[in-house]
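input
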Amino acid sequence: MSFEPGQRVVVLTDHPGGNPRTPGYVRGRTGTVLQSHGVVANPLDHREPYPALYTLLFALGTGDEVTADLHEEWLRAAP
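output
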């Protein structure tokens, strides 16, 4: 796994081979890793294990926050 809790990451705006379920409202945003869930196996839905899954926290700028669970293939370390 590439990211640790507390680390800031950027969500890609597009990932051609990525999970289309990544919400549009977090694409391109910077968030903070809250938890790493590791590699997720789901043999009923997917032949191979999914990339590592992370729970991320995003500040909305209004004082509110939202969390999202995203796979590692959508994330890059924030500058």
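quick obs: The chain is about 0% helix and 45% strand.
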